[in-house]
Amino acid sequence: MKKNYIFKFLLLMIPLSAFLLMSSSGGRGDARSGSPGDGGATCASCHSGGNFNASVAITTDIPFNGYLLNTDYTINVNTSSTSSTHGFQLAAENSSNTKIGTFTAGTGSRVSGDRITHTTPSNSGDWSFTWRSPSSDLGRVTFYTAVNAANGNGNAFDGQDQTVTGSTSAPSLSIAEAKRLDFDMYPNPASDNLTIQLASSSEIATVNFYDYTGRLALSKDISTNDNKIDVNNLASGVYILKVVTDDKIGTQKFIKN
What we know:
Blueprint: H1 2-25, E1 55-60, E2 72-80, E3 85-93, E4 102-104, E5 109-112, E6 115-118, E7 126-132, E8 141-150, E9 162-170, E10 183-186, E11 193-198, E12 204-210, E13 216-223, E14 228-230, E15 237-244, E16 249-256
C-alpha cells in the first residue's frame, strides 16, 4: 500500500517538474537576478550541486566617467563554463535597490518586466542587449546577473547544475539642471571638423573629448567666433564630449568616423 502512495506521488510530481522546467527553459518571469532588490534570489534552489567551473562577467560600453541620461548602451553577459546549456536573468538597480532604465532584447533574450532573461537555453552562455539609461538622475547603476550552467538532461532537480552570479556598476554623468550647459554639435558623426554651437553668443568654453576608458583624447578652447574643432587625428570610435564654461557643464555623445 505504501508503495502505491509513493508511486502516485511520483506521478503527480512529473507534470510539476515538467512545468517548472519548461517555464525556466524560456527564461524566468519572477525575480531571479540575484540583485539586492530581488532579495538575492537566483535559481540555485533547483540548479545547484553540479560543478562546471562556471564564472560570469558583465561588460558594457558605458564610459569610465559614467553614463549619460536617456542614452542607449550595450550590455554583455559572458559565461565561462564546461556546460553547453545556460540561462540567465539580469537587472539594473541604483544604490536604493530600485530598478532603473529600460532594456531592449537582443538575440536569445527577452524583456521580462523590469529585468531581461533568455528565450531558449544558450550553448555559449553569452548574451548582448541594450540598456537605455533613465531620463533623470537616479545615481550609480549596478547590473546584477545570475547564470545557470546546466547538464541539459531536462531535470532541474538532479543536483547536477550550477548557478553563478556577477555584477558591475557605473556612475551617472548627469548634471544638475541649474548648471547644465545646452549646446548643439554637427555633424555627428564627423570625420574632419566638428562645430560646437553654444547657446549664448558671449560664451567661451573648453571642449574635452573622453574615450570609453575615460582617457582625455582631445581638448580645445572655443568661442562663438571660433567654434570649429579639427577631429581628423582622433581615432574612430565613440567619445563623451564635455563642454565647460565658467559656471556650466554640458555633455553629449560624439561619434568619430
